[in-house]
Amino acid sequence: MAYPYRHPSEVRLLSEHFGNPEARTLKGWEARGGYTALRKSLGMSRGDIVNEVKASGLRGRGGAGFPTGVKWSFMPAYTGKPHYLLCNADESEPGTFKDRELMRWTPHALVEGCLIGAYAINAGHAYIYIRGEFFEAAQIVARAIEEAYAAGYAGKNVMGSGIDLDVTLHLGAGAYICGEETGLMNSLEGRRGEPRVKPPFPAVAGAFGKPSTINNVETLCVVPHLINNGGAWYKQWGTEKSTGTKLFCVSGHVQRPGNYEVPMGFNFKEFIYDMCGGPAPGRTIKAVIPGGSSVPIMTGDELDIGMDYEAMAAAGTMLGCGSVIVMDDTTDIVKQVRRMVDFYAHESCGQCTPCREGTAWAAKILRRIEAGWGNEADLQTLMDISDNMAGKTICVLSDAAAAPITSSIQKFREDYLALIRRGENLAAARIA
């Protein structure tokens, strides 16, 4: 289970029903106010829904943090073409397990959010693209979709409104790159999952060449709350620019790992030490990755900051998808970075040379250092490779691989040098 611990400082908006199997069912969800937001939305204009989401300040919870209402407003009003809403449920970032739990425990929240979002952007069809390994979650969501159709919440003439809204569940095959929005679209179309060059942007030519918008699971689960309570209500939590609550998944060297929901801007140090219990007795925190493996690493001395987009950026890292990975003083930083880079090298689609070659060579050099065959010049080579990867490819997978490399060399250089010196000493001893 990825939710077992609770803390009084949490604001459980989305996670309130984690662990309650009754909330999975249509009857249970209706008893908890389910689909009242959809009914309300169908009586609103599409523009009013978009404006309400804008007013909330809700930013995409998939990692980029782009304002959701603004993203919806990019969709053309009437083109004579089908429009599509795509839900990214691929959740493949290492260290991330929040969307899976939302789908496991509150699948109707996601279905309702998809239906409202589809209506708001004038889309007649919503696709939920779910990671192929999420067998349990996929079955639960599929059942929720069936229940929504049977109850008249989806399909033809939704709730007697004269509006048709379809929802389809699509299983991916487990490729990390399909979490990138255009890679997901290619996969959905039955083509190779690799990112597209932009422009054209999805709002112009997305899935099946038609106007499309893509949102994360957590983002869409927030939408029914916004419709029921208003954007101003949502802004009671968080900061001026990072509003609302956020689910954070915590793994690694803490005593109480799991999913926690806190207001944006919550103190990071308090979160790790109080809410998550801190490291085991006698251990200290060496490093923390705040937003999944694709963001720069922080030291244990850099944690007294807010958990919001702006504070994390000011600290030289990113909030990302809110996947907190904690490493104590027993951690071999070089080994962990090598494992991350191995992952990105394996998951690269190979389309862009800087990514294809850069991740492979970086992984090779890191393995050499880890084995004790490296030299100090390798560190500069790794920095050069990272510089040639970052910002120079179609998507940001290469940036994701570069971030842990550069940040670890900058902040934990001695860990690299210790392995290099040990290898040099062993080599000298063998010669002697």
Note poorly predicted spans: none
Radius of gyration: 23 Å
* Helical/strand content category: alpha/beta
CATH topology of the largest domain: Rossmann fold
Number of helices: 17
- Morphology: globular
Which strand order does the major sheet show?
6-5-9-7-8
Distance between the termini: 54 Å
- CATH superfamily assignment of the largest domain? NADH-ubiquinone oxidoreductase 51kDa subunit
Main beta-sheet strand count, sense and barrel state:
5 strands, mixed
Helix content: 40-55%
Total count of domains: 3
Question: What's the helix-strand series?
Answer: HHHHEHHEHEHEHHEEHEEHEHHHHH
The overall pLDDT average reads 94
Overall CATH class of the largest domain: Alpha Beta
Instruction: Based on the coordinates given, report the CATH architecture of the largest domain.
Output: 3-Layer(aba) Sandwich
**How many beta-strand runs?**
9
Strand content: 5-15%
Q: Main attributes?
A:
432 residues, Ubiquitin-like (UB roll), five-stranded mixed beta sheet, Rossmann fold, alpha/beta, four-stranded parallel beta sheet, de novo design (two linked rop proteins), 17 helices
Structure description:
The chain has 432 residues and is of the alpha/beta class. The protein is built from 17 helices and nine strands. It has helices at 26-31, 36-42, 46-56, 68-73, 98-105, 107-120, 135-150, 181-188, 217-229, 231-234, 268-275, 309-314, 333-347, 353-370, 377-389, 397-411, 413-431, and strands at residues 84-89, 125-130, 166-171, 212-216, 245-252, 258-263, 285-289, 298-299, 323-328. The chain has a five-stranded mixed β-sheet, covered by helices on one side. A four-stranded parallel β-sheet has the order 3-2-1-4, with helices on both faces. Helix 2 (36-42) crosses helix 9 (217-229), helix 13 runs antiparallel to helix 14 and helix 15 runs antiparallel to helix 16 (397-411). The longest helix is centred in the last third of the chain and has 19 residues, at 413-431.
